[in-house]
Design brief:
about 600 residues, mainly alpha, two-stranded antiparallel sheet, two-stranded parallel sheet, 30 helices
């Protein structure tokens, strides 16, 4: 490896380390801010950035938020209060003044939060129309006031309910078609379709190193997540290396560092045979002894462009941020009695496991080595297979196609009798994956149709809004409410409801407690933590003459505790009064000598 490559890798890892949790081994009174690497960002942006890094869900699921709304733990006033806390939400902006009452942006955002349907599949749309008749009938759960307003508007226009809904459906489709005609088509999708399988393959490869790892790419194509298989042995080796004297076995090469210890152990591990990876031991034996060289060799073997090395390594570390952060902490806080460990070692092993398990998956399904060029040649020869695999990964297939496709995912396309070829032929006869253009336009229009129904707009009003340019403000408000803002609004609304409950309870109970100064029958002092609040409330309700207090649990004593088998004393007090690590420095030499004599008597 050249000096430039080494410098590039070191820079990548150093940059990555700043995004990892700086978590020490948990011993006592530990608090850690998991967003510490993003403290320079506003809260919502920090959560989004952390989610991109780790893949974790930063917000409560919207279905759960809507359930909380139905339970009354969030209400419309909370949502309105949340909107006023978010910049650029503009809840008081008027979108349409000709309706009664006028339509405000807050009404739009509230409807989007409470009723945001996903675009249905072609089959799902047919079911909504044929079975529930939602293109000619108002939804049963529509707000009664909105229902009355719509029916009154329909009566004024001489329309019955079916005609009202059908006219609104037609107006929404006209607006959607007009917007689609004005918008540019997706260039990547069009070029991929024009170029066939080769073009689509290049489009997918362009995501490698930016938003995808090899594991992401293969999961998109096969539905199999190889990380589920590789994380278990990886964590097992990490746990053994980080062991603090509790494990019954220690790796003989542990003192040489994690990468060296893993390489020595994994190179003779018969678990590879059980996982159909018998050839892995030969590959491990041929690895470079230098972990930096192993990382560079592995990334090149995975065909990751050098410009993408930083993001690729970040994604690998972000899959197990706690373990990666612990490795980095140990590297920056070395101890004489602990084996060496570094983030470089962590990444070297993780990169090797990535291409070992990816190679096994590609060999099993396509009978090819882990060579993206060779895999691309296969898809160029079998474009139907790639198109179907891509549609599967995108989650856009109707149920009947998905049922037929699922058994094929573990196989590759072959001759003319291949199941892939037959399935592609059936789909072509049925009008293609997306159906005809009419179905696609109808599915694209359905979310807007559901929304304007909830807003109480008629077809006549929607056409008038479009003619006056007000529909642009409506669509801009829909586009503004992205996933980050949705999550933030729900969180702020939930916190507002809880906060108002607390304030109301405090206000209602203010002054109720009698003045017990010098008159209390008993006084109780509790440690201030999650457990004591209920106990304190219970005692004061049992007898108002009882008086309770909260205090730091160490009761003012800066205490160190050292068990018989402990290698060092532990501070049993908050960090702000944390004592020194020496009993003698805390209590003095005389008291320490007495303490040590007492400990020896207990031992004997």
């Amino acid at each position: 490896m050249s000096a430039d490559d080494l410098a590039h890798l070191r820079e990548c890892v150093e940059h990555l380390a700043h995004r990892l949790p700086a978590q020490a081994p948990l011993r006592d009174f530990v608090h850690h801010n998991t967003l510490h690497a993003y403290q320079h960002l506003p809260f919502a942006q920090a959560l989004t950035a952390a989610a991109r890094f780790t893949g974790a869900r930063p917000w409560l699921a919207e279905a759960r938020c809507r359930e909380l709304f139905r339970q009354g733990r969030i209400d419309a006033a909370d949502l309105d209060a949340a909107m006023r806390q978010v910049a650029d939400s503009r809840p008081d902006e008027l979108l349409w003044t000709a309706s009664e009452p006028p339509l405000r942006r807050a009404d739009l955002l509230r409807a989007l939060l409470l009723h945001q349907p996903a675009p249905p599949t072609a089959q799902g749309l047919r079911w909504l129309v044929e079975e529930q008749q939602l293109d000619t009938r108002l939804p049963e759960d529509l707000d009664p006031a909105v229902r009355r307003r719509l029916l009154a508007a329909a009566a004024a226009d001489g329309l019955a309910e079916p005609e009202l809904v059908a006219d609104l459906w037609q107006a929404v489709r006209e607006l959607t078609a007009a917007r689609s005609a004005d918008a540019d088509a997706d260039a990547d999708a069009e070029s991929a379709r024009a170029a066939g399988g080769a073009g689509l393959w290049q489009t997918l490869l362009a995501r490698l190193g930016h938003t995808w790892t090899i594991a992401d790419l293969l999961q998109h194509l096969t539905g199999e997540d190889l990380r589920q298989a590789l994380h278990a042995p990886f964590i097992r080796h990490l746990a053994a290396h980080l062991d603090r004297g509790l494990a019954a076995w220690a790796n003989p090469a542990r003192e040489q560092g994690f990468f060296a210890a893993w390489r020595a152990s994994a190179g003779v591990d018969w678990q590879w045979e059980l996982n159909e990876l018998a050839w892995a031991r030969r590959e491990i034996a041929q690895l470079a002894a230098d972990p930096w060289q192993t990382i560079a060799d592995g990334l090149r073997r995975l065909a990751v462009d050098e410009a993408c090395w930083p993001t690729y390594l970040q994604r690998l570390a972000g899959e197990l941020p706690g373990w990666a952060g612990m490795c980095h902490w140990r590297a920056t806080h070395p101890a004489a009695n602990e084996p060496p460990l570094s983030l470089c070692d962590f990444l070297a092993v993780r990169v090797v496991l990535e291409w070992l398990y990816a190679e096994q998956l590609v060999r099993r399904i396509w009978g090819l080595p882990l060579d993206l060029a060779a895999l691309g040649e296969h898809f160029a020869a079998h474009p139907d297979e790639l198109a179907l695999r891509h549609a599967y990964g995108e989650g856009t297939l109707p149920d009947e196609v998905l049922d037929a496709l699922s058994p094929l995912l573990a196989t590759a396309a072959g001759g003319p009798d291949s199941g892939w070829r037959r399935l592609a032929g059936h789909i072509a006869e049925a009008g293609g994956l997306a159906g005809d253009d009419g179905d696609a336009q109808a599915r694209a229009a359905w979310p807007l149709f559901s929304l304007v129904l909830r807003l109480g707009l008629s077809g006549r009003e929607l056409r008038a809004m479009h003619a006056a340019g007000a529909a642009d403000r409506l669509l801009a408000g829909i586009a503004w409410l992205n996933d980050e803002r949705r999550g933030l609004l729900w969180l702020l609304a939930y916190e507002n409801h809880y906060r108002q409950q607390i304030f109301a309870a405090l206000l209602a109970n203010h002054g109720r407690a009698p003045a017990l100064a010098g008159l209390a029958q008993a006084q109780f002092v509790f440690c201030m933590d999650d457990r004591e609040e209920g106990t304190r409330r219970h005692l004061e309700e049992v007898d108002p003459a009882y008086e309770t207090f909260g205090a730091a649990g160490f009761f003012g004593v800066p205490m160190l505790w050292q068990g018989l088998d402990d290698e060092a004393p532990t501070a049993l007090c908050p960090i702000v009064v944390r004592p020194t690590n020496s009993i003698r420095e805390v209590v003095g030499a005389g008291a320490a000598a007495a303490y040590e004599r007492q400990q020896r008597r207990r031992i004997h």
